Amino acid sequence: MQSNISFDENVLAQRLMNHRREFHRYPEAAWREFFTTSRIASHLQVMGYSLCFDDEIIHRDSVMGRDANLVAKAQERAISWGADLQLLAQMNGMTGVGAVLDTGRPGPVIALRFDIDAVEVMESQDDSHRPRFLGFDSLAPGVAHACGHDAHAAIGLGVAELLASEKSNLNGKIKLLFQPAEEGCRAGKAIAESGWLDDVDYFFAAHIGMNVPSGTLVCNPQHFLCSSKFDLHFSGKPAHAGIEPNAGQNALAAACTAVTQMLAIPRHRDGMTRINVGQMHAGDGRNVIPASAVLMGETRGENRELNSFMYQHVEQIAQAAAMMHGVSVDICPQGEAIGLTNDPELVTLLESIGEVSGFTQVLREKDFGASEDAGYLVDRVQTCGGKAIYCLVGSDLTAGHHNGDFDIDESRMLSAVKLLFNAVKAKQQQPSSIE
Length: 435
Fold this sequence. Notes:
21% strand; alpha/beta; 8-stranded mixed β-sheet; 12 helices
């Protein structure tokens, strides 16, 4: 393949690094990415993209796991960080942005998705941690880009830059989705049901890292797990633990019973199943019968039926534990993911352009073994007649995903930009690509 676009790779690589480090410095958790969205949108405006916010890209009735109080605080913080007030007004309380590059010429509609939210973990305070050592570590205690979405946002801006520079040589329409709330699988369904992707012919998404070494591209990851995220709110009655313990209704005891029984749900013979309880909060004092308890957990399954098997057990156990201890329970869904299957045509395409895009090893398949909010987006595109793919861009990591010591190999972002740019060009039936 010969290149027909000239750009300075070193300059672009530096710009990608700068973007990534800014996003890393100002991390925002799911549904709270106001500063991040503002910065992305401002760059896209300069490049000439038309922008879409709020109900243009998000079906509000399908939103999951969004806390209005936390959202309000996040908006205030974004303003203190320097977010654009006009763009904040356009967001109307909903983060994320869709960008459209319309060439005005007949051709396919191609969409690319980049998730932008951070993880609710504390970033390492060790001086050997590179973001801390170089001064771009998290300014938000308890929130960090420990999954690589800062790199995804930067990659998206890099792709946007190349596409904008090539607009006169492109056909059709290109849509770039900078998606909020991937963590916890909270936004994919709402975005899919907005209809913004219904006219898409080809859809591309990627994730950096995922136990894939630098220089390696995985074109067709396997075994995406369906998942249900949930909170259980147990409500009882307080009482003095010494004077009249019999008068209380112990919500903490109900929650503990639920946890032990949920972890004992039998795994299924027909495939992979998982359950985890990640947080539990309860009680008011050492000598008070706990009147309230909240636990946060998730189920996973190799397919929808297996995940449903696990989640139905959670519901049964929650109700039974509440009844045992004389308390009530509210089961509050917080997120949901379905599996995904890549279209073979696009798998073959990525195999053919991986090496020219800068990857030294191209693998067709590798086990994924986790859940991804992109499942709803892929499913929506395929249901509407389009084709879709989700791939993995290798990066050596300093620690595993969702770990406070997490950091990526920033040099791998450029290969991801080139891969996605080349994929867009190929599906527009252009004869050449960048190298």
